[in-house]
Amino acid sequence: MFRTALNPLLFLLLAALPLPLSAETGLPLRVTGPDRTVTLFDLEALDALPQESFVTGTIWTDGQAQFSGVPLAALLDRTGIAGMADQVELVALNDYRIEIPVAEIDPNAPIIATRVDGRAMPVREKGPFWLVYPYDRDSRYRTETTFARSIWQLTQVNAAR
Protein backbone atom coordinates (compact mmCIF):
# COMPACT_ATOMS: atom_id res chain seq x y z
CA MET A 1 0.00 0.00 0.00
CA PHE A 2 2.80 2.42 0.83
CA ARG A 3 4.38 1.70 -2.55
CA THR A 4 1.17 2.58 -4.41
CA ALA A 5 0.90 5.94 -2.63
CA LEU A 6 4.55 6.76 -3.29
CA ASN A 7 4.45 6.24 -7.05
CA PRO A 8 1.83 8.92 -7.82
CA LEU A 9 3.56 11.36 -5.47
CA LEU A 10 6.94 10.70 -7.08
CA PHE A 11 5.39 11.09 -10.52
CA LEU A 12 3.91 14.49 -9.59
CA LEU A 13 7.21 15.72 -8.16
CA LEU A 14 9.17 14.65 -11.20
CA ALA A 15 6.58 16.09 -13.58
CA ALA A 16 6.88 19.47 -11.88
CA LEU A 17 10.63 19.69 -12.51
CA PRO A 18 11.61 21.91 -15.43
CA LEU A 19 13.26 20.26 -18.39
CA PRO A 20 16.92 21.18 -18.77
CA LEU A 21 17.48 23.76 -21.48
CA SER A 22 20.58 23.95 -23.60
CA ALA A 23 21.76 25.21 -26.94
CA GLU A 24 21.06 21.71 -28.29
CA THR A 25 17.34 21.89 -27.41
CA GLY A 26 16.86 24.74 -29.86
CA LEU A 27 15.93 27.48 -27.40
CA PRO A 28 15.44 30.37 -29.85
CA LEU A 29 16.35 34.01 -29.57
CA ARG A 30 13.15 36.06 -29.87
CA VAL A 31 13.61 39.42 -31.63
CA THR A 32 10.79 41.98 -31.63
CA GLY A 33 11.11 44.79 -34.15
CA PRO A 34 9.82 48.35 -33.92
CA ASP A 35 6.59 47.28 -35.69
CA ARG A 36 6.12 44.49 -33.10
CA THR A 37 7.02 41.82 -35.67
CA VAL A 38 8.54 38.84 -33.87
CA THR A 39 11.29 36.78 -35.48
CA LEU A 40 12.70 33.65 -33.86
CA PHE A 41 16.36 32.82 -34.46
CA ASP A 42 17.65 29.38 -33.61
CA LEU A 43 21.36 28.57 -33.65
CA GLU A 44 21.28 27.72 -37.36
CA ALA A 45 19.57 31.04 -38.24
CA LEU A 46 22.07 33.02 -36.17
CA ASP A 47 24.93 31.14 -37.84
CA ALA A 48 23.57 32.27 -41.24
CA LEU A 49 24.15 35.93 -40.28
CA PRO A 50 27.56 37.66 -40.45
CA GLN A 51 29.93 36.28 -37.82
CA GLU A 52 32.62 37.79 -35.60
CA SER A 53 35.14 36.02 -33.40
CA PHE A 54 37.66 37.23 -30.82
CA VAL A 55 39.71 36.00 -27.91
CA THR A 56 39.23 37.80 -24.61
CA GLY A 57 39.09 37.30 -20.89
CA THR A 58 36.02 38.11 -18.83
CA ILE A 59 35.40 38.85 -15.16
CA TRP A 60 33.13 35.78 -15.05
CA THR A 61 35.48 33.18 -16.51
CA ASP A 62 39.01 31.95 -15.93
CA GLY A 63 41.63 32.85 -18.51
CA GLN A 64 41.13 33.68 -22.16
CA ALA A 65 38.43 32.16 -24.37
CA GLN A 66 37.44 32.49 -27.99
CA PHE A 67 33.92 33.87 -28.38
CA SER A 68 32.13 33.66 -31.72
CA GLY A 69 28.72 34.71 -32.89
CA VAL A 70 26.73 37.37 -34.67
CA PRO A 71 27.47 41.05 -34.08
CA LEU A 72 24.49 42.69 -32.39
CA ALA A 73 24.61 45.38 -35.10
CA ALA A 74 24.14 42.74 -37.83
CA LEU A 75 21.11 41.30 -36.03
CA LEU A 76 19.61 44.77 -35.63
CA ASP A 77 20.18 45.45 -39.35
CA ARG A 78 18.60 42.12 -40.34
CA THR A 79 15.47 42.71 -38.24
CA GLY A 80 14.95 46.38 -39.12
CA ILE A 81 15.68 47.64 -35.62
CA ALA A 82 18.75 49.63 -36.68
CA GLY A 83 17.66 53.08 -37.75
CA MET A 84 14.13 52.58 -36.40
CA ALA A 85 14.74 52.41 -32.65
CA ASP A 86 16.82 54.54 -30.32
CA GLN A 87 17.45 51.73 -27.85
CA VAL A 88 17.40 47.98 -27.75
CA GLU A 89 16.27 45.96 -24.75
CA LEU A 90 17.86 42.58 -24.05
CA VAL A 91 16.18 40.06 -21.74
CA ALA A 92 17.68 36.99 -20.07
CA LEU A 93 16.06 33.71 -19.17
CA ASN A 94 15.74 34.90 -15.54
CA ASP A 95 14.07 38.16 -16.72
CA TYR A 96 17.21 40.29 -16.14
CA ARG A 97 16.82 43.23 -18.53
CA ILE A 98 19.19 45.82 -19.87
CA GLU A 99 18.91 48.58 -22.46
CA ILE A 100 21.62 49.71 -24.86
CA PRO A 101 21.43 52.88 -26.96
CA VAL A 102 21.67 51.78 -30.59
CA ALA A 103 24.18 54.59 -31.20
CA GLU A 104 26.60 52.85 -28.78
CA ILE A 105 26.64 49.56 -30.72
CA ASP A 106 29.72 49.18 -32.91
CA PRO A 107 29.61 47.24 -36.20
CA ASN A 108 31.57 44.30 -34.73
CA ALA A 109 30.95 44.60 -30.98
CA PRO A 110 29.26 43.45 -28.95
CA ILE A 111 28.45 40.04 -30.34
CA ILE A 112 25.72 37.63 -29.43
CA ALA A 113 28.08 34.76 -28.70
CA THR A 114 26.73 31.40 -29.75
CA ARG A 115 29.95 29.51 -28.98
CA VAL A 116 32.86 29.60 -26.56
CA ASP A 117 36.01 27.90 -27.79
CA GLY A 118 34.01 26.46 -30.68
CA ARG A 119 31.35 24.81 -28.52
CA ALA A 120 27.70 25.79 -28.19
CA MET A 121 26.90 26.96 -24.65
CA PRO A 122 24.34 25.15 -22.52
CA VAL A 123 22.23 27.24 -20.15
CA ARG A 124 24.35 26.12 -17.21
CA GLU A 125 27.36 27.74 -18.90
CA LYS A 126 25.75 31.13 -19.64
CA GLY A 127 24.16 29.98 -22.90
CA PRO A 128 22.68 29.46 -25.23
CA PHE A 129 23.43 33.10 -26.13
CA TRP A 130 25.64 35.62 -24.33
CA LEU A 131 26.22 39.27 -25.22
CA VAL A 132 30.00 39.64 -25.10
CA TYR A 133 32.36 42.53 -25.75
CA PRO A 134 36.06 42.20 -26.65
CA TYR A 135 36.98 43.36 -23.13
CA ASP A 136 40.74 43.04 -23.65
CA ARG A 137 40.72 45.03 -26.90
CA ASP A 138 39.89 48.44 -25.46
CA SER A 139 39.48 49.99 -22.01
CA ARG A 140 36.05 51.36 -23.00
CA TYR A 141 34.85 47.74 -22.88
CA ARG A 142 36.01 47.37 -19.27
CA THR A 143 33.49 49.60 -17.51
CA GLU A 144 30.70 48.84 -15.06
CA THR A 145 28.17 49.83 -17.72
CA THR A 146 29.63 47.39 -20.24
CA PHE A 147 29.82 44.61 -17.67
CA ALA A 148 26.16 45.20 -16.72
CA ARG A 149 25.21 44.96 -20.41
CA SER A 150 27.03 41.64 -20.84
CA ILE A 151 23.85 39.64 -20.44
CA TRP A 152 23.98 35.85 -20.59
CA GLN A 153 21.21 33.30 -21.07
CA LEU A 154 19.86 35.82 -23.56
CA THR A 155 16.37 35.00 -24.82
CA GLN A 156 14.97 38.27 -26.22
CA VAL A 157 16.07 41.34 -28.14
CA ASN A 158 13.41 44.05 -28.35
CA ALA A 159 13.27 47.39 -30.10
CA ALA A 160 12.78 50.18 -27.56
CA ARG A 161 12.23 53.89 -27.95
Number of helices: 4
Runs with pLDDT <50, length 5+?
1-25
The CATH topology turns out to be Sulfite Oxidase, Chain A, domain 2
Q: Which CATH class applies here?
A: Alpha Beta
What fraction of residues sit in β-strands?
A: 25-35%
Q: Name the CATH superfamily assignment.
A: Oxidoreductase, molybdopterin-binding domain
Give the overall pLDDT as a whole number.
Answer: 87
Q: Structural class, from helix and strand content?
A: alpha+beta
- The number of E-state strands comes to 10
Q: Cα-atom Rg, whole angstroms?
A: 18 Å
**Main beta sheet:** 5 strands, mixed
CATH architecture grouping: Alpha-Beta Complex
Termini Cα gap:
62 Å
Give, in order, the helices and strands.
Answer: HEEHEEHEEEEEHE
Task: Tell me about this structure.
Residues 55-134 form the Oxidoreductase molybdopterin-binding domain. Keywords: Signal. It is built from four helices and ten strands. With 161 residues, it is an alpha+beta fold. The protein has a single domain (2-160), classed as Oxidoreductase, molybdopterin-binding domain (Sulfite Oxidase, Chain A, domain 2). Strands 2-1-10-5-6 form a five-stranded mixed β-sheet. Strands 3, 4, 7, 8 and 9 form a five-stranded antiparallel β-sheet that branches. The longest helix is centred in the first third of the chain and has 15 residues, at 2-16. The termini are far apart. Mean pLDDT is 87; it is low at 1-25.
